[in-house]
Specification:
The chain is α/β, with parallel strands linked by helices and about 150 residues long. Helix content is about 35%, strand content about 25%. α2 packs parallel to α3 and α3 packs parallel to α4. The chain is globular. The relative contact order is 0.14.
């Protein structure tokens, strides 16, 4: 009895392996729906994949009837401004899809602060230290404000 539990296929580089994942899930679900969706381990850089490619991957999974969860989200960056704008664009795209009824059912950041991240030299998270938010943090909140989901 798993009526309240989703079974997900969770993997990295889903934006690069999208067609193979869709084929696999079609096979797994060929007799009956066993796998409900895709967990997208999202260890990104602020240049790879481009935000539009990430959005298109999410849309393709959704259009195939799968729920989507962003898991392990972090964004390595060469520039705090570029990281912030990249995360803002991704979040705004996801929130638009969600507000339109898409089954985007989880976003999990892969840590709180850069100092404790497994990618600490890439400064991938929303906080420098647990009490020091970065521009990326404010840009993610801005995406929620722009979509009417958060008031300052």
């Amino acid at each position: 009895i798993r009526e309240n539990v989703s079974l997900l296929y969770n993997d990295f580089n889903t934006y690069s392996e999208k067609l193979q994942i869709l084929t696999l899930l079609e096979y797994v679900n060929s007799d009956k729906k066993v796998c409900d969706g895709v967990g997208m381990q999202s260890h990104l850089t602020a240049m790879n994949p481009p935000a539009i490619k990430f959005k298109m991957t999410v849309e393709d999974f959704l259009e195939a009837g799968h729920e989507v969860h962003l898991t392990e989200l972090d964004v390595g960056n060469a520039s705090p401004t570029y990281q912030a704008n990249y995360l803002h664009d991704i979040m705004e795209d996801l929130l638009k899809l969600k507000l339109a009824g898409a089954e985007i059912n989880g976003i999990t950041y892969w840590g709180v602060s850069d100092v404790t991240s497994w990618r600490k030299t890439e400064k991938p998270l929303l906080f420098t230290t647990p009490n020091t938010p970065k521009l990326a943090y404010y840009k993610v909140l801005e995406a929620y404000v722009n979509m009417g989901l958060y008031e300052e």
